[in-house]
Amino acid sequence: MIETAKQCKSVFKSIITYKKKNHEDAASIYVFDSNGDLIYPYDISQEYKAALQPYYELTKGDDSTLTFISPLTGKTEYAAEAVSSYTGYTYLTIQPESVVLAPVYNLLRILAAIVALFLTISIFISYRLSRSVVKPVKHLKHIIQRMELDTLGQEKVTAYPVSVNELEELYQAFQLMSDNLKDSMEQLNQAKEQEMKARSMALQTQINPHFYYNTLSSIIVLAENGDSETVVKMCRNLSRIMRYITNTTETTVTLKDELDYVQKYLYCMKVRYQSSLNYSIHVDESLLSQPVPKLIIQPIVENAIRYGSNCAPPWNISITSVVTEGSWQIEVTDSGPGFTEEAKERITANIMKAIQNPGLPELKINGLGTINVYLRWKIFCKGDIIFRYGNTADGHGIVSIGRYFSKTDKSADETDCISE
User: Fold this and answer.
1) Which residues form a coiled coil (predicted)?
2) Is pTM beyond 0.70 here?
């Protein structure tokens, strides 16, 4: 029998080299002889050998690879065993699950990083795309919110840079709509202005013809009595009155021009009624430059004389002004019996009907009454008016018209129309 001996370092050289190369990542390798005794590692204590002995029990199964809980660490480990046909030794290779799956974990981390990167890039691209869409839409929304009838077509939305073709088409369509709407509004406003001018001109011609007859009759009487000076003054006033009425080139005058005309009218009426009629005009000078429709006060004065003379003379006509911080009014007061309840109800009903009318109110050619004065004043001031009618504390008739100095004092859609 020949027996050879060899050092363990030489026998297990390949295992030792493998352990040195891989250090902590190296698998734990255990070698058992045919009797089940641990022969590698060879430089450990007997107690440690005894602790490793349960590993040999793992090699008795039918599987060459298995997963188990380490009797030493209590962690999951993977084991692979092989038996040498030459020596009969059992080689058991054991490695923790964390080491075996480390490449998988690294791959998962790489994939997660790639996914996160793609998500970040996608979010950034989505943000940029959404911003390129949302920002122009918000800009268009703000333009629409700021848009008013007076500012149509002033802000050109096509000047805003847009990167999406559909949005550019939307901008162009909106700009076209705004321009068309502006043109339509201008045409509508021109039509309304022409209609208002035509109606105002028609109403200007509605001066009571009896005024001319009575004035001419008065002139005849004065001429027969030899009062040439009064005749001249009457003819001059009548000529100015007719020139004022028949001048259709201007439908808007200053309050001073209107009051001058009213004063000439009252003078003619004074000549007719003599001492039975008295009148006074006291208007704040700061109001004389206010624009008003032509023949807006004269109808009120005419009605005051007509209905205020239904009593014993003398009859008094007073034209005064009331100026507050936010508004002004012209009041025409007579000394007659005042408005009847039936008359006030009728006027109120007609005015409420005019307020509810969405378009230009219908002006009937049937005399310059109180309701027609209201309608003309409403058209001229576009609803921002003061219009009052009723009786004074003494029971005499009073009608006042006015307006607010600014729309902040009262809404343009609100009319201060009161039956007193």
Assistant:
1) 164-201
2) no
